[in-house]
Every structure is written in C-alpha cells, then in structure tokens.
Design goal:
By secondary structure, chain A is an all-alpha fold. Chain A has two helices and no strands. Chain B is 59% helix and 0% strand.
Amino acid sequence: MNDKGIDKAAPARDRSDAMLDAVFTAANAGMLAAIRQGLDLEGGLAQIIGAPPRLEMPAPGLLT
Amino acid sequence: MSHLRTSSVRFLIQCGANRHDADDAAQEAFIELFKQWPTVRKPRQWLRTVAFRIFLRQPVGSASSLETAQDIPSPVSASDPFDFRQEEQRVLDMLDLLPTAQRAVLALHYDQFETRDIAEILEMKQATVRKNLERARAALKKLLDFDGDPRPRREPPAEGAGE
C-alpha cells in the first residue's frame, strides 16, 4: 500500500486512523468545555434533588 | 456528577440533537437516574442508554427505535447556543452527514465505551456496532485532509456515507 516501501507490515490506514482519533479527541474535549460553560448546572442539580432555585435578589423585607 | 451531565449532553449533540433537546433529555435521564439510583450498577452507561431513548422519541415523533431513526436526517443544527470553536463545529458538521446509528456508535466509541457496552446502549449486535463504526470512520476520513492540515474540511458527503 505504501509506494515508498515504509512500514509495509502496518495497515495503510493506521496514520489516518490516528489523525482521525486526534481530531475527535480534541473536538470532544472542546465540546465538553463549551457545554459546561453553557449549561445551568446549578439549576439542573436543584431540579434533580428538589431544591428551589437560588433567588437572584433577596425579597423586600427579607433581611429585616 | 456535572461531568456525567455534560458528557451526556455532548453525546446527544453528536447524535444530532439540538442544544435544548440534548439538555432536556440529559436532565430527564438524570432525574430518572436519581430515582433508580439503588438499582443502577453502571451510571455512566445507564445515563447514555436512557438519554438516547429519550432523544429518539423527541425529534422524530413516531420513531421509537434506532432502526427507524437511521433514515431521518438531523432537523436542526446541533450546536446553536454553545460556544463551540470552529474545529468542533466542523466535526459536528461532518457528523451531520452520517446516519444516526453511525453517529451514536462513533460518539460512544470516542467516549471510551467498549463495543459490548455500545451494543447494550444502542440495543444492537456487537457486529452491527463494529460495522457502523467502520463505516463512520471510513466516511469521516474521506472528509478530512490528512495530507497536510489535520483539521476537518467541509466537503460533499462521500458516496455511501448516508447508508
């Protein structure tokens, strides 16, 4: 498969497979970081465990 | 715990869900996980299984199985509100060219699941998993320029990529 006679024992697709793996591994990590930034994880967890969402501002008179 | 949720959302986006459907399905799966926690032995795999089933019934209505969903193209761009970089968006664009079964197998493969686990999650034979993975990889390699810059390129879908 390799016209230069290099590494004939290995399948010809090895290099492209490795590069495909590299592309997807990098993309996966980037997607995870972007999703983590874009999700409301606290709100989602509160919904799961049944806790009320955190108030943006205290209600009037709450601290008096 | 948050990693389980974000990785579930990523999995569904790679399968073709839009952000809102992916988020909703992952959240619903998480709620079910908490309800059934004492009986769940593999939470990570369990979440993928349940989230994927929820996803299948959301965008395609009558489609209740992966076999039915295979011929239905993703209706919405997967990534909308997330701040994906160009490289990540290009990978998603390429995945858009693949049938759902191939996308799901590929996503789980790169999520470090074994063939046996992928077969259980997607309810298909291990031989079918291997066949879908092989076809997906072959199609994607045709879309990538490995001669120079390893970043994905936008090109027309390869023949057979939509099988």
